[in-house]
Amino acid sequence: MSISICSFNVNSIRARIELIQRWLTEKRSIDILCFQEIKCTSDQFPIETFEALGYHCAINGEKRFNGVAICSKYPITSVKTTFGIEVLDRQKRLIEAKIGDSVILNCYIPRGDLEGEERHSYKMAFYDALTDYTRHLLSEHEKVILLGDFNVALTDRDVYDVSHFEGEVGFLPSEKEKLLALIDVGLEDCLRKEYPDEQIFTWWDYRTAGIWRNEGMRIDYIFASQPLCQHLESIEVDLWTRKRRTPTPSDHAPLIASFKVF
Predict the structure, then answer these.
(1) What positions carry a catalytic annotation?
(2) CATH of domain 3-259
(3) Given 75, 89, 102, 161, which residue has the most CB atoms within 10 angstroms?
(4) For the chain, what are the domain ranges?
């Protein structure tokens, strides 16, 4: 039996709930949904909609900004929303849950800014703390999934035009270095395991209508520990929710992986 898991920056769960509900009922079934940028407090999350579809939900919400959630058709046996590390707890950007034998850490990394700016320093510090925490997590658990919006395009294959993104936030050498350091603690990039050389994107700028020309970036990832990644069956970006005019889409598309063992 395969289990599917999805990472999806929804850019406001309440603005996107009709679209998500239609996607889940008309297009495909997903076992575990991991949302970023839900932009609501935990009590404002539309939990009734997901419960009606058979999901258990864990939420770490924040008014107007940020916020993450995990909705699972399988029981969630433990949830963590604070980590005892100031830079990770400053905003609602992380939620950890155990489902079956696997631990899922759902992340919304700060967007940052150009080097020398305060928001860039925050992003770098967040990455450092997340790397240390993930290393600890991998030392305690064999099956770990780290996923979400990491706000970094790692290689030239992860942007449609290198010259367009050179020197821009999300493609800075310092950001790539931090993301590589995170992966190097013992994770595998699931999409690159299946598609080592292809240009595949997860985000397209609203302002340029880039989705219609596939002018995007890959900034959403599903990483897995090696014992779990070896059971990866498939991974894809589902464009159904992105190539819409109504209901209004997010600027991201869902990234979905299926595992034979979870």
Answers:
(1) 108, 149
(2) 3.60.10.10
(3) 102
(4) 3-259
Q: Quick one: which H or E segment has residue 7?
A: strand 3-9
Whether the CA torsion 6, 9, 12, 17 is positive or negative: it is negative
| C-alpha span between 12 and 67 (Å, rounded) | 9
Amino acid 248: pLDDT:
92
* Helices within the chain (DSSP H only): 13-22, 47-52, 86-89, 118-140, 162-165, 173-183, 190-194, 226-229
Q: What CA–CA distance (Å, rounded) separates 217 from 172?
A: 13
* Whole-number Å distance between alpha carbons of 113 and 237: 27
What is this structure's pTM? 0.97
Using CA atoms, how far apart are residues 90 and 210, in angstroms rounded to an integer?
33
Question: Looking at residues 203-230, what average pLDDT do you find?
Answer: 95
Cβ–Cβ < 8 Å for 98, 143: no
pLDDT at 261 over 80: no
Helix 118-140 vs helix 173-183: crossing angle, to nearest 10: 10
Say whether 2 sits in a helix, a strand or coil. coil
Q: Cis bond leading into 247, ω under 30°?
A: yes
CA–CA separation, 46 and 200 (whole Å): 31
> Distance between CA 207 and CA 256 in Å, rounded?
25
